[in-house]
Amino acid sequence: MGRKKITVVGAGNVGATAAHWAAEKELGDVVLVDIIEGMPQGKALDLMEARPVEGFDVSITGTNGYEETAGSDVVIITSGLPRKPGMSRDDLLQKNKEIVASVTKAVVKNSPDCIIIVVSNPLDTMSYVAKAVSGFPKNRVMGMAGVLDTARFKVFVAMELNVSVEDVQALVLGGHGDSMVPLIRYSTVAGIPITELIAEDRIKAVVARTRKAGGEIVSLLKTGSAFYSPSASGVQMAEAILKDKKRILPCAAYLEGEYDLNDIFFGVPVILGANGIEKIIEVSLTEEEKAAVQQSAVEVKQSIQSLNV
Ligand SMILES: NC(=O)c1ccc[n+]([C@@H]2O[C@H](COP(=O)([O-])OP(=O)(O)OC[C@H]3O[C@@H](n4cnc5c(N)ncnc54)[C@H](O)[C@@H]3O)[C@@H](O)[C@H]2O)c1
Q1: For residue 135, what are the contacts with CB-CB under 8 A and spacing of at least 6?
Q2: Which of 84, 94, 97, 119 to mutate to test the pocket of ligand 1 (most atoms within 8 A of CB)?
């Protein structure tokens, strides 16, 4: 029985850190791909040399090609340009479309049975590109955004109450952008609705900070964008698939009628297991939440349509 194999395309901040988390968790052998000569090889070798210290036994390979990626079980696509201060996610659209399309072609050629997790921004649109180019069924292509958006929301709730992040449960729906829809009614701390614990104006402040959380980090870093939490989020999805955990996680999934949306990648709760997205869970929404979801979807649709995929 062989080990599982995870390919991470793009060995920049998000990609290299994803390789780090995946190797440390011993999810499988990791292949790191980038176009910059020597860089993925150097990072992979450096990670290999951390193994005796941290005690993980998987192999990490760096490459500028795709031969080494053959037979991957999960492929995480992080290649692209990161957002710079003052740059909107949609500014990245055209350039990243070309990158994600070419990478997806090469991935699929070498790993026709893999499951693809897209991280490159703008997330919902790049997931759409990957699905269109791969020709994969909808259960095998997904985007990472909801896990990160939800993690950020959980952190801000925990900070507000000075309690453990482990006790916070939350759900964020919608596109990966300022129009995301944190669902307050479905957010609890140790089973207690957050509305019982946090005043309304403070909940509003937590929601506002969650919406702008990516930008908050961009403006602090000045060069580049968040990578520890995005890579951890992508790897959590990979782990759910590789270990067939049947976790319920919010992911960008291809919708065909769910939430009254069609032909769009959109953040919704799904069951993630060995077959990728095994089920899309539809939760009931209030009229106000439905309107927020539809508004978020309009923004994602516009972005997808502008690309003529
Ligand atoms: N979905 C999310 O929540 C989320 C969060 C953070 C970052 N991101 C996105 O992830 C992507 C990566 O971010 P980062 O901070 O790691 O950027 P980065 O610049 O550090 O890394 C990107 C890497 O992609 C490589 N690359 C470019 N074209 C390539 C190609 N054709 N083939 C292989 N590699 C290629 C670059 O050489 C670079 O090393 C960006 O699009 C960013 O916006 C998404």
Answers
A1: 108
A2: 119
